[in-house]
């Protein structure tokens, strides 16, 4: 079943930009699991490589769509709801930069610079578009956090690469914008208009900014202080908030929009493992393993259903 905003004639839906993001993010989480409790290291490395292949497929598929239907692509880029989804592409590049860092720091640096530049440009375009005013309230969706996620994630790889000051600037801007948009989204969701059934998976994106901000704050500050605790447990709270909607989610038919669940799940699993290693306390490894298992199952399910739809010719 196809999400209502992605008609069969429109080619690859922008919601599938989240596919390489989720798979690569899960690979990074499994890499941390190998360090935290001796999980097999090949799982994380394989997933990161698979994420790179999916990223290449997504870029080729959307490039083909642009050549065949440039008008459709332009209309998606003009749509404020879909424009934020494009941020998943440089965000995937940023994750791949972190994936390449241990083995190829020069490639990681190039990927990081390209990802950060693209993310900043896209964020500024989105902010400029919103600043024109006169927009319908229903255009404000949790997907607005995706461009912020990119600049919040940047310090995780940027600090080890030596971009300390740029990383602080990106982290500060991302944090302030997240705190600015968060009450606007709550007002819209709680008082104006609830999320439609087909958009329910996007509620998971609430988890992403605090989880990434926590992981970025650790290398920036060099320690897990009180502020890091606030960020981490805010992400845990938003997971609980999402689970309140589990019954409604379970009744939904699968669509490409389900990929919105994958990266937040992987980011929280990765954040929990970082929290455990940074604290060096008895923070329960059982919770870390549970979050990692949940993220793995969500991504496995979305991947299997997407492949099934692709083989049957019903994905688009």
Strands, count:
0
Poorly predicted segments? 1-9
Oligomer: single chain
Helical stretch count? 13
Summarize the structure.
The chain is built from 13 helices and no strands.
How would the blueprint of this fold be written?
Layout lengths: L17 H20 L3 H28 L1 H9 L1 H4 L4 H13 L4 H27 L13 H14 L5 H29 L15 H14 L4 H18 L2 H5 L11 H18 L5 H27 L5
Could you walk me through the main structural features you see in this protein, from its secondary elements to its overall organization?
With 316 residues, this protein is mainly alpha-helical. Helices cover 72% and strands 0% of the residues. The protein is built from 13 helices and no strands. Helix 1 packs antiparallel against helix 2, helix 5 packs parallel to helix 7 and helix 7 packs parallel to helix 9. The N terminus is likely disordered.
Features:
disordered N terminus, mainly alpha, 72% helix, 316 residues, single chain, globular, 0% strand
């Amino acid at each position: 079943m196809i999400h209502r905003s992605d008609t069969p004639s429109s080619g690859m839906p922008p919601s599938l930009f989240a596919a390489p993001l989720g798979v690569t993010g899960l690979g990074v989480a499994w890499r941390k699991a190998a360090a935290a409790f001796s999980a097999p290291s090949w799982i994380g490395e394989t997933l990161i490589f698979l994420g790179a292949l999916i990223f290449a497929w997504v870029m080729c598929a959307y490039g083909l769509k642009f050549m065949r239907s440039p008008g459709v692509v332009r209309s998606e880029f003009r749509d404020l709801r879909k424009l934020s989804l494009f941020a998943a592409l440089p965000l995937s590049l940023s994750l791949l930069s972190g994936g390449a860092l241990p083995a190829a720091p020069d490639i990681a640096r190039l990927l990081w610079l390209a990802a950060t530049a693209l993310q900043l440009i896209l964020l500024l375009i989105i902010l400029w578009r919103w600043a024109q005013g006169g927009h319908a309230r229903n255009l404000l969706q949790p997907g607005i956090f995706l461009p912020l996620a990119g600049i919040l994630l940047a310090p995780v790889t940027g600090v080890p690469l030596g971009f300390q000051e740029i990383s602080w600037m990106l982290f500060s801007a991302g944090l302030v914008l997240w705190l600015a948009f968060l009450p606007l989204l709550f007002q819209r969701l709680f008082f104006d208009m609830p999320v439609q059934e087909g958009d329910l998976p996007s509620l998971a994106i609430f988890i992403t900014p605090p989880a990434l901000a926590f992981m970025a704050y650790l290398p920036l500050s060099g320690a897990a202080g009180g502020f890091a605790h606030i960020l981490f447990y805010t992400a845990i709270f938003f997971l609980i908030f999402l689970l309140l909607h589990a019954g409604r989610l379970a009744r939904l038919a699968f669509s490409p929009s389900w990929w919105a669940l994958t990266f937040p799940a992987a980011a929280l699993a990765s954040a929990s493992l970082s929290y455990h290693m940074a604290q060096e306390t008895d923070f329960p490894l059982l919770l870390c393993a549970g979050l990692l298992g949940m993220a793995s199952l969500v991504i496995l399910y979305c991947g299997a259903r997407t492949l099934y739809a692709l083989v049957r010719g019903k994905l688009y």
